[in-house]
Amino acid sequence: MPDITLWKPEPDLILHQALGKLAEEIGELNTIVARILIQGADGRDPKTGKPNAEALQEEITDVLSAATWLQQLGHGAVLTDRANRKLQGYLEWQAMLEADRDGTAANEYGAPCDEAPLQEPAVHG
Ligand SMILES: [Mg+2]
Fold this sequence. Notes:
- This protein is mainly α.
- It folds into 2 domains: 65 residues, no CATH class; 48 residues, no CATH class.
- The chain contains 3 helices and no strands.
- Helix 1 packs antiparallel against helix 2.
- The radius of gyration is 23 Å and the shape is extended.
- The N and C termini lie far apart (49 Å).
- Bound molecules: magnesium ion (MG).
């Protein structure tokens, strides 16, 4: 078995470039998301002074624009049901994190997390 697969690039020039632009913009979005994780949403680019929140807004816009171009070429249409299920999951996740943060989450025994479990876990061995 060869060490590499002898692929060829996407032959449609326009589709090739739209995919390349989307990949580039996703990389830029990834960069600002990583910076916000390590520096904070209220931080600024250390070289340009641009606020991180403004850069995030720009890069999300750039990704959506590149994705829209790709969609206009007939690729990557949004699956509305999937998008809605994902968003519902994110909102449930957010509610769980907020409950944990606020100390209102129930533990696996149904008791608030700051209370002892209703029964001691079994000890084996
Ligand atoms: Mg960009």
